[in-house]
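User: For a reading group we're discussing how well predicted structures match intuition. Take Helix-turn-helix transcriptional regulator. Before you show the prediction, I'll give you the sequence so everyone sees exactly what went in.
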Amino acid sequence: MTLRAATLTAPVALPERTKTRVLDLVRRHGPQTAQDLAARLDVSIPAARRHLGDLLDQGLLEARVEKPGGRGRPQHVFALTERGEAAFPNTSSGLCADVLRHLRELFGQGAVLQVLDARNQALGEQIRAELAGAATLGERVEQLAVQLTALGFEATSHRDPSLHEDGAGGEVWYITQSHCPHLSVARQYQELCASELTLYSDLLGVAVTRESRMACGQGCCRYRVAALPT
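Assistant: Thanks. Here is the predicted 3D structure of Helix-turn-helix transcriptional regulator, as structure tokens, for the group to look at:
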């Protein structure tokens, strides 16, 4: 192993206890404001800001400006950097990335896609059984979010209250994932995100488009689910 490779894979030491809690909250719930974290930690906002400042200085968090739900007044939120994510090592993700890399090197890009397709088929059968009792699109979307959360994606669903129609009159829903258990792999293999998008569309039986993507540095993965009238 080269010195460079050892440096890249070396684990990041976790900071003191409260700061570790801050990092864990951001990891589990997605980008947070200082107010959000103060409430979750039961500390004052100035105390939360001090911890955030230290974590920013250590390169474990980054600050960005976002609009709540894509609308409203912009606010400062804090998200994990790659260094921050490395504080919570996921050996299975590292193994997965290595396997996909070797597949690509040995058998070409098509082999990677075949593996992901096979994974989706098995995962789809499992989730489809849970969606079987959902009669409406809204029920299917809500149940899919539940299943994704169980898989580690911290997913929520909602119908846009300001938009009840799409084009000629279809309903519109959103699924938001604030955590990705495969983020390090998704950054290296865009095919993983593309295959998940196809899976969601297949499970819901309607068009699904991705509006934001954590693997591209955005704060969450947000999917727009639109059903046009027949």
